[in-house]
Design brief:
about 150 residues, two-stranded antiparallel ribbon, about 30% strand
Amino acid sequence: MTFIKYETANNVSSYLVSAISSNSTSVIVNDGWIFPSSFPYMITIEQQLNGQTVTREIAKVTARSGNTLTIERAVEYCVGDDTANPKTLSKVAHSFEANSIVALTMTAWTLQDAQNWITDNADAIASTNIDISDLSDRIDNIEEDISLLQNL
C-alpha cells in the first residue's frame, strides 16, 4: 500500500457558507485559512438538528483556495445519522444546509495510513537499528585502537 501521509491539524472547524448538493465537489467555509494548505486531508461535514448530527459525511480535501475547499465526496464509511435506530455505516454523498459544521478530523483512513507505513517499514527500521549498533561498536573499537597506539 502506498503511504499517503494525510495532513492533520488540531481543532480546525468551520461552517458552510452556503448549502451544497450531493454532487458538489467544493465547499465554501467561513474561515478557510485555518485549514492546511498541503493535501490531502479528511474533513467531516455534519448537519445538526437540536444538537444531534442527522447527516454526516467524510470527504477528502485535495485543494484549497481562500475559503473554498475542493473535495472528493463520501470517501470513508461513517455513521451518517446519530438519531437513527439502528445506526448504520454508510459511504454516501449528502446534501448539506448552510452553517453545517466542517471539521478536519482524524479518520480511520488517516490512522490506517500511518499504521501501514510503520508495518511496511518495520523490517527496514529494525535492520537500520542493527546497522547503527554495529557501527557504534566499530567506532568504539577504532577509538580503543587509537588510544592504544597513542600510548605506545
